[in-house]
Amino acid sequence: MVIILVTTLLLTLAQGKADPPPRPDLVRGPYNQADADFMAGMIPHHAQAVVMAGWAKSHGASEHVQVLCQRIVVAQRDEIEFMRNWLRDRGQTVPPADATHHKMKHGDMEHDMLMPGMLSPEEMAALDKARGAEWDRLFLIGMIKHHEGALKMVDDLFESYGALQDDEMFKFASDIYADQMTEIDFMTKMLEGYKPGAKK
Fold first, then answer.
1. Which alpha helices (DSSP H) does 105-196 contain, by range?
2. Is the dihedral of CA 176, 178, 179, 183 positive or negative?
3. Would the CA dihedral through 126, 127, 129, 130 be positive or negative?
4. Model pTM?
5. Where are the domains of the chain?
6. CA distance 40 to 96
7. Which of 82, 102, 154, 183 is deepest in the core (most CB within 10 A)?
């Protein structure tokens, strides 16, 4: 019995940090399907941003863009963990932290979909192929689009009847909106430096 337990523990450690158990006793406010769908859809959305930003150093990004990417990676990984815990505590299906698509259900059918603003496989391939200043330019264009998609997701949630009744959920969605609006403004100004004739 002891050998089995030790083996299970070693396998868990080898596969990475185990997910914590659900904590239904911590759930205070009400929630509805729109809240749960938002959280489940925002996980792959954030996960793609983490992949994109994670390429900065290996793809020759400028120092300023690398600093931005480091901030994006840290912030969005933390938010992915929060969203996965939120879903788990409420007995909802929890997407993996590195999910690439949102699994949308229609009755008995399930299909993968990209959330608003997410880059297509072709756009991701082009970004992965680029280096240096061209990578910076494509990253900024792609991440602005990505953030704008997140804003649409938040807008749609606010328009969903009965959503955001939980104070924690309301604050989280509002913080995402404010943070990504700020980063869009910042990236838009950075992108000006990559236009033809711009001063470096």
1. 121-129, 132-158, 167-192
2. positive
3. positive
4. 0.86
5. 30-188
6. 10
7. 154
